[in-house]
Amino acid sequence: MAEAEKAPLVEVTGLTVAFDSVVALDGVDITLQTDQVLGIVGETGAGKSVLARALIRLLPSSAEIVAGDIKVAGRSVAGLAPEGLRRLRGGEIALIGTDAKALLDPVRPVGEQVADVLQAHKRMGRKEALTAAIDLFTQVGIVDPEQRANAYPHQLSGGMAQRIIIAMALVAGPKVVLADDATLGLDATIQVQVLDLLVSRCRDLGMGALIITHDLGIVAKYCDRVAIMRNGKIEEETTTAAFLRAPSTPYGVQLLAAAKARPIPMTVAEPVAATAGATVTAPAIEVVGLRKHFNMPSGHVIRAVDDVSFSIPRGETLALVGESGSGKTTVGQCLVRLLSADTGKVNFGGTDLLSLSERDFRPVRKNIQMVFQEPYVALNPRWRVEDLISEPLALDPTVTGSAARHKRVLEMLDLVRLPGKLAKSYPHQLTAGEQKRVGMARALATRPEFVIFDEPTTALDIRIRAQIIDLIRDLQRDMALATLFITHDLNSVRSLAHNVAVMRYGKIVEIGEAARIFAAPEHDYTKMLLGAELPIEEFVPAQKQGILA
Amino acid sequence: MTQILDFIRFTLRRPAALIGTTLLILQIVAIVFAPWLATHSPTTADPISSLQPPSAEHWLGTDVSGMDIYSRIIFATRINLLISVTAVLFAFLVGVPIGLLVGYYRNWASTLTMRVLDFIQSFPIFVLGMALVSVMGQEIWNVAIVLAILFIPVFARLIRAEVLSLRERPFIAAARCSGAMDATIMFRHILPNALTPSIVQVSISIGMAILLTAGLSFIGAGVRMPVPEWGLMVSVGSQQMILGVWWVSLFPGLAIVFSVLSFALLGDSVREYFDPRRETA
Amino acid sequence: MSVSDSWQRLPRPLRIVMSRLPMVFPQMLGVIFVTFMLVRLLPGDPTLLMLGNMATPESIANLREQLGLNGSLWEQFVHYMGNVMHGDLGVSLFTSNPVAKDLIERAPATLELIFYSMLLTVILAVVLAVIAVVKPGGIVDYFSRIYGLAAGAIPDFWIGLLLIFFLFSLAGIAPAPFGRIDPLLEAPPAITGFYTFDSLLAGDFSALASSFGRLALPVLTLTLVNAGALMQMTKTTFAGIWRSDFIRHQRASGLPERVIIRNALRNSLPPIITLVGFLVGFLLGAAVLVETIFSWGGLGQYAVQSVINSDYPALQGFVLLASAFILIVYLIVDVLYELADPRIRV
Predict the structure, then answer these.
(1) Closest to A107 (Cβ–Cβ): which among C250, C255, C341?
(2) What is the value of pTM for the model shown?
């Protein structure tokens, strides 16, 4: 590297952006060289998206660039006229966002949309542009490109839509690709495919890529360098290898530690002390031959849950893993009777739950509860936390009177490590992590025997996720819950589950002890799932392992 | 209660809302203090003073029968607002539960009800109003009843739309898991979240009802003489407009404009208050 | 090959139209039933009310026969429906003509009025809405906010009168508000029924000028009031789309502004189509008022006359025709909506 260095593709110096009086970016310095992949990691509110938008000067009108400069390919972005900015966007820097389908025009075929972008940057006729678009589809791995080009966005899957967006980003031949949380919400296997594609195309074309994410695993696998953002500042910036070996700031250390799975595998819970004469402990819940089909008006039948059987002993956790469409969420909904299963038995506490009438099932709800996926929408925005947590107490005959209820609410808040004064708050006044905990407090209020957690760790920031996982481990141990853990986050499964069942297309393809399945998966699909996981441990340099802990 | 105070504080900071509130207060004053504010009797004819332009004696002039326009406008506030507010409140009280039930229970009864409501709404509202009033008889109460019938589908539809989207939300499923039963879910979970658009609509509908009442009376299908009503007053002066007698129709029309405006402005500020994109509350 | 497969093979527009048709028949039936019930809502004997002091047993019997009030309710309904199917809507008590004839004579006047009003309203509303959203904080935005608020509060009959007063009585630039064409000129030979089209087709330019002139004030009245409401609603729809993720992404991909505006408009089309459908219904009601002020000689004036004269057959006929018209308009609107939005599965 002795010769004069080429000008960096992107050079940001001292960038400060403020929304009215709130500072979103504070003196940010970023450099991206050609043929380099830079990862930008941060939690919610760090300012990552603001940075991305600032690079193409697409900030909302209330935002102002207070100080600093942005240079793209040596030229300053600040002085550009509207036409110059237009050419910059898509022509030199292309943006790829989250939720690809929402980024596409719903009423036009996708091929035309990509052709539009090409025509906006290069002089060419319509036919030529369409042909070029279809060619590009092939390069981004879309089978049957002509057919796909005529499809509308709502007819595409999430992964397919993301490929179209990538094609749209690459079509005008930009120098830099900006991926802002581009794989959020995608299944792990799709995520890996999309990122593989993106990074390989960038390297082939000699482009630079800025990958914004909150997943350190992605950074570890794909990025040459990493910048850690927090509260609008860059905390540290270095090569990925150096960071994974030893982060240089306390915050970096916290993040790395939180991204790792809780190291100690769960011990199998001691069976409940055998009562005289009883030698075998019955499982807390046993599911036999559960089936739920949906009949579509077109005549097509969706086998959401197709002959699923498993059992969960008291005090143990079963993780039900699978990608979207596997049916795992439907299983959970059938167990709490939010959906009525077609056939099957669910043996719990001596009765088959599915055979009970709605009225007879109601008292049983005391012992079966569910923690819902998205925290904010699972809480009635007009109810106070106190009322939300005490609602299920109506099912518990031992808790009567408002004094007793109030006491239980405070107990629950304490259990999930929330301050008692939050009882009077409304959901929108809480952070995402706090909302998740309130959801848990509500589910545990009646001290149930069996709890279902639906995607407890999805879409959480790195450190919050670690906290929630720790909390769940403690709750499992203290309350001896039988738990069903529905998730696609394999990383969390390592620290939380005794047993794992892998679901695909409504069926369980493999089931067994967690340790065994992770170490030696048998079914091909399981192997594929594990292959798509990005556990940070894999990338941390080997020298750490093997040393006495 | 605290919400109402908060709303008042919100209103005071916005000029549009202030204007609306002031106009509303003026109307309320006119309603309560009409006998003291009026200068002449609103219903006694006085042919000698027919068609006098505005003067010190008759502040806004007189109409064909010599009745004082200013006094009639003041008293007409009672009639116009009475009819409109009663009609809309009634439509709200009937429409909201209907919308709630129809949106929550998806069975043949709810489909049938929706068809009936659809049907009422498919007639041009003015034409239907006109036909109904002419058939039922031109009494003040009949006008109110007809208007109420015309507005019930509006509220039922608004609530139903909200209910349909709310019932799929996870917090409803969570409530069911917590053991809540249908009635609780409908009234304590869904309704508080579903009311906002309908509350905004109350204000707007009152404005519309005033316009409808005036229109109906204008063509002679609403209230009858000598009842003081703004639309009727405009119609009385319509023949004379061409001849240059402008005051008979102008002032009652202005009254309509200000009245409807006040409700529209209030409705707007209620809508902005509840807008989830706002920073506070 | 199932029924649903062969259904899916038909071209989409055809599927849309065909799935809508079955509903039309029961809806028309409902309309006929309601108009039938209208007169029966009267308390007491309608014939007595209508004949008043001149009632003799003979005339009562005659009138009852005329109005079809004999026999059980079901018989009456069947009788009425049978008549309607044959185009017999009864005889007007006031004009003594068959109601159907009266209606057909007057329909073109109203249709012409609604046509031009709708055209002008839609253009004005959409243009204002789009500019207001694309250039927020600008003059158009500011003006449109005031206009939207004010227009909704102004009664159309009042503004019509004011327009007559200022533009005719005071300024003398508008023609007299007495009908569709200068009474000294002859109406063009009727081909479409629209005076403007017919005079153009006949090459009669003085008739063309006169009919346009006469249309000016009533159309202006209807437009001024209704464009405000349509503009507000269009603004809301368009603004929602303008702020959406995919529009932002188009800007981030470097598409020129005018292409983005075009795409946003295309997305706003389905709701705007629905709004225009409502507008037509609304205009029909508003035409009643406006026709009265301008002596237009259309359906609206006819309806008002029938109300004042307690001419029930005429009123019934008008309600029936108006409702059938709205039904067809809504049908067309629904079809256009589904055509414009590819996400809707048929």
Answers:
(1) C341
(2) 0.84
